[in-house]
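Milestone 3.1: sequence recovery, worked example.
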């Protein structure tokens, strides 16, 4: 049965107006500025940039304001805007060894070469509400000169001197681009890392947590976690050399995992890797754990049947925009579908009641 449905354009316009009013909130309170969101809600801005695949703090802050703080909606807005931008070319791979580190720690070496820099972190704070923030007073300035400006070598490089950690394969193949081509399975590691970087933080965290609880037998140490700014370079054909086009802040994590060896590889340590826009420690660590779990086939390990080892499950369900679109579409009109379901149920009930009546007679 088909039922005629008329659109409610006026109702939609009114809904938009009401949304704008709710977004603004009480007029007795000063309007939140883009600069305030960018500077004071930086971690939220970082997440929107990472999962939206666009590094622009101002646009991410605008998206958060427009979305009323709904992070997934803000990510959706950024991704949609990103598709309208022209592509001029590709930058060169960033060199994180040259990172100006605001934070750089290792859970494997106390006396890490280059030193440990605690940086701005919640790790050592008491999880108690600070009511002094409600007073909106002046914030004491942090000591200056805390960030490392000189190149900081990677911890795993020192393990590699003894041949104790698996050497990463290096090639000149251009990796695929998930922002332009749909994901196809099986995916190589470069595409998996892209997918995890764009993946929902909560989902990737849940997958990572599952590996720590025994699903995939993936016990990892944080070999190194670093946060800082790196320069971005781009080759200019007309000039014949690369030039700096700006800098971005990233969080990088390398995990060290024990590996008992296989038929082709000796016992050694292996790596998990995560790199995310902005300061996003939880996401980068989670990403590294899941990356390592997904490497079971290339390392010749057994598949324990763990969710985090299932490439299709992890990669196809980590994208919060795809998940949101598919989930929220069911709240849109499905009148025709439901009418057909309704008629089917009525028919089945009539047939069932008829059979019961015949049996009773």
């Amino acid at each position: 049965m088909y039922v005629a449905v008329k659109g409610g354009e006026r109702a939609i316009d009114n809904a938009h107006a009401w949304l704008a009013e709710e977004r603004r909130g009480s007029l007795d309170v000063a309007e939140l500025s883009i600069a305030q969101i960018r500077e004071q809600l930086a971690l939220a801005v970082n997440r929107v940039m990472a999962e939206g695949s666009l590094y622009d703090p101002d646009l991410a802050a605008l998206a958060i304001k427009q979305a009323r703080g709904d992070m997934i909606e803000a990510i959706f807005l950024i991704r949609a805007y990103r598709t309208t931008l022209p592509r001029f070319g590709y930058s060169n791979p960033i060199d994180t060894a040259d990172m100006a580190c605001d934070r750089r720690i290792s859970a494997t070496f106390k006396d890490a070469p280059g030193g440990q820099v605690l940086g701005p972190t919640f790790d050592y704070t008491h999880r108690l509400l600070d009511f002094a923030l409600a007073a909106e007073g002046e914030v004491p300035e942090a000591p200056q000169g805390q960030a490392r400006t000189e190149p900081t070598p990677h911890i795993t490089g020192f393990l590699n001197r003894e041949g104790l950690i698996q050497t990463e394969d290096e090639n000149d193949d251009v990796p695929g681009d998930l922002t332009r081509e749909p994901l196809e399975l099986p995916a190589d590691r470069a595409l998996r890392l892209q997918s995890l970087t764009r993946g929902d933080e909560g989902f990737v965290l849940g997958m990572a947590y599952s590996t720590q609880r025994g699903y995939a037998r993936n016990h990892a140490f944080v070999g190194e976690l670093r946060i800082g700014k790196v320069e971005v370079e781009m080759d200019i054909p007309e000039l014949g050399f690369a030039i700096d086009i700006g800098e971005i802040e990233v969080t990088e994590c390398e995990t060290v995992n024990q590996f008992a060896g296989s038929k082709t590889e000796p016992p050694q340590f292996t790596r998990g890797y995560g790199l995310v826009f902005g300061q996003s420690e939880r996401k980068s660590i989670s990403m590294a754990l899941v990356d390592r779990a997904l490497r079971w086939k290339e390392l010749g390990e057994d598949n324990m049947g763990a969710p985090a080892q299932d490439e299709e499950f992890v990669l196809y369900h980590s994208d919060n925009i795809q998940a949101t679109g598919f989930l929220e579409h069911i709240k849109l009109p499905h009148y025709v579908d439901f009418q057909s379901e309704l008629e089917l149920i009525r028919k089945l009930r009539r047939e069932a009641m008829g059979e019961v009546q015949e049996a009773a007679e």
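The two ends are 34 Å apart (CA to CA). Confidence is low (pLDDT under 50) at residues 1-5.
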